[in-house]
Write a structure and sequence with these properties.
This protein is an all-alpha fold and 102 residues long. It has one domain (3-97). The protein is 69% helix and 0% strand. It has five helices and no strands. It has helices spanning 3-20, 38-61, 68-78, 80-89, 92-98. The relative contact order is 0.14.
Length: 102
Amino acid sequence: MGWADHYRRRDALDAVLRDAHRDPSAPLIVDPDVFGSLHELLLALDHRWQNKLTARMEAAALEGPVDEDRVAAELTADEPVLRAVLDAHLSLGSYRTVGMTP
């Protein structure tokens, strides 16, 4: 993936989250020029969540023992729409099926 593709995917994810701000449980609009399916879109959203969470966990570890629940709660407070979209569109079973984590 080149930079143009990266920015196109980033912009598409941002647009999905802007739209979902009103109702995170509403059907998500998949841009077929960017994502091949709803599943691919959800994987990309989960990837965004995991990247942010990993960065925060690593930063917290620099300061000492990590309270994982606190770090996750802080990220949820900072990214409420992203978390709400993932929670609304993926059941716990769905996460396990595709190797994602809630």
